[in-house]
Amino acid sequence: VINASGSGSALVLMANGTTIKGLNLTGSGQCGCGSSGILVQSSNNTILNNVAYGNYYGIYVRPGYTNNTFIANDLIYNRVAAKDEGENLWNGILQAEGQQSLAESAVENQMRGNHYSDFDEPKEGCKDLNNDGLCDRRKKIDGGRSIDSCASIAVQNL
Prior knowledge:
By secondary structure, the protein is mostly beta strands. The chain is built from 1 helix and 14 strands, in the order βββββββββββαβββ. Strand 13 and strand 14 (147-148) form a beta hairpin. It is globular.
């Protein structure tokens, strides 16, 4: 668990080509100035299987940062689940290289999409008529043109 203790962001991702996996991020500041569970200020990263809860933004991508991939994250009880001012992939599939990576990728590709506590019930716009665990409607990510077409109906990391 990384707790920002009410000030700034829990994690600021500034290095390109980084993987952030399996963290619980909470307690960001409450200003709309970018205080986040994960504040992304770089490109070509993979943000995978994290829990961001109790933040102003669960995940916030600053303008100009692209090619970040967000897979199977739980964004719960944040004031704004996610804001993306770049062009990023919110339901990506990891690329495999070599036999070991292929096996790891096959397991990880079975994970569900990102989960948003403000978009996981029919009254919030998420219906799952085919019972595959994913919302039938795509979730627009605040701040730009990014869309998550694999939003999950169920919390997966808690």
